[in-house]
Amino acid sequence: MTRHFLRDDDLTCLEQREVLELGLALKKDRLALRPLAGPKAVAVLFDKQSTRTRVSFAVGVAELGGYPLIIDAAGSQTGRGESVADTARVLTRQCSAIVWRTYAQSDIEEMAAVATVPVINALTDEFHPCQVLADLMTLAEARGGIGGLKGAKLAYLGDGANNMAHSYLLGCAIAGMEVVVATPPSHMPDPTVVGTARELAIENGGAVEVTADPLVAVRGAHAVASDTWVSMGMEGEAAERELPFVPYQVTQELMDQAAPGAIFLHCLPAYRGKEVTSEVIDGPASRVWDEAENRLHAQKALLAWLLERS
Ligand code: CP
Ligand code: NVA
Q1: Is the peptide bond before 284 cis (omega within 30 degrees of 0)?
Q2: Is pLDDT above 90 for 4?
Q3: Half-sphere exposure of 193 toward its Cβ, with a 13 Å CA cutoff?
Q4: Cα(202) to centroid of ligand 1, in Å?
Q5: Whose CA is nearest to atom 2 of ligand 2?
C-alpha cells in the first residue's frame, strides 16, 4: 500500500516518533541514507511561493541520492488547467514521490487517490504538516530528545483558521502534547479539525484547547509559536487581517509568562512588528533558524520512511 503524508494525522504517534528519530539521526549524518540513489526523481510542485520548502526538498532529495524536479505551476500545464488526476498519472509513471504545495486540501487528496507513489503535502490552505514535523523536532532538541515532547505545552497565537493552526492541533495532539490555539473568535479553527485533535489527544495523552485569551495560552508553555496574519492567497484581505490579531502579537511580556527556558517558533516568513516583535524573534528564546534547518532533516526522514513502506 502506498503511504502518503497529506495531513499530520496520516502518521500515528509511534510513526511520528520514528520519523522524528530518523530526522535527528540524519541531522548528525546527512548522507547516511540513499533511498533515491540512481538518481530517482521526486517531483516538487509549487502553486504558491516558497523559499524554505523549495530549498529543503531540493537539497533533501539530492542528499538522499535523488533528483529533485522542481515544477512551478506557471511553467506547467497544471497552470493552464490540466486536471489533477491526469497530472498524477503522468508523474506517478516517472517519479518516486510527489511533493505538492497548493490551495485546496481536496486537490492533494485527489492526487494521492490516483498516484501510486507517496504524495507529500508541502502546504495547503488547510494544513502544513511538514512544517510541524520540523517544529516538533526543534522542540524535542530543546527538551533533550523526542521523549521530551510528551506532556510539553505549545501555544500558538494568531490566525486560528489557517494551515499552521490546524497542523499544530493535529501534530501536537499526536505527539501527546498540550496544544493551545489563541485566536480571535472571528478566526476559530475548523471545528472538525479541533474534534479530531481532541480524539487524538485523548488517545495519546495530550490535551487541546482553543481560547481567545493569549495570556491563558502562553502561561507555562514550553514553546510559543506564531505565523503571519495574512497567509498566501489572502493578500486581498490584508487590511482587515490586522486589527483583530494585534492582541495576539508575541511580545517579550507574553514570553515572560511562558515556562522558564520556553522557545519561540515561527514557520517563516515572519513580519516583525506584526505577529511577533523583533525583540522576541531575534532574541535568545528564538529557535527559528534551527526550525528552518530542521525542515531539511525532518523531510528527508519522512521521504525515506514513506518510500520504505510504499
Ligand atoms: N515555512 C515555509 O513553508 O516557508 P516557505 O513558504 O518559504 O516554503
Ligand atoms: N500560513 C502561512 C504559512 C507560510 C509558510 C501561509 O499559508 O502563507
Answers
A1: no
A2: yes
A3: 25
A4: 31
A5: 231
Q: Is 266 in the pocket of ligand 1 (CB under 6 A)?
A: no
Q: Can you tell me the distance from the alpha carbon of 166 to that of 125, in angstroms, rounded to the nearest whole number?
A: 10
Q: Chain centroid to CA 183: how far?
A: 19
Nearest CA to ligand 2 atom 1: 231
C-alpha 198 chain-centroid distance: 19
Taking the C-alpha atoms of residue 22 and residue 308, their distance in angstroms, rounded to an integer, is 13
Higher-confidence residue of 126 and 75: namely 126
Three-state SS sequence of 23-36 = HHHHHHCCCCCCCC
pLDDT, tens digit (0-9, with 9 covering 90-100), for 63-114: 999 999 999 998 899 889 999 999 999 999 999 999 999 999 999 999 999 9
Within a 13 Å sphere around the CA of 196, how many CA atoms are in the beta-carbon half?
Answer: 17
| Cell numbers for 60 | 533533501
- 212/225 Cα distance (integer angstroms): 15
- The pLDDT, as a whole number, for residue 86 is 98
Q: How far apart are the first and last CA of the chain?
A: 6
Nearest CA residue ID for atom 3, ligand 1 = 53
Question: What rounded mean pLDDT belongs to the chain?
Answer: 98
Residue 83 CB–ligand 1 contact under 6 Å: no
**Alpha carbon of 85 to ligand 1 centroid (Å):** 26
Query: What are the pLDDT digits (tens) for 160-216?
Result: 999 999 999 999 999 999 999 999 999 999 999 999 999 999 999 999 999 999 999
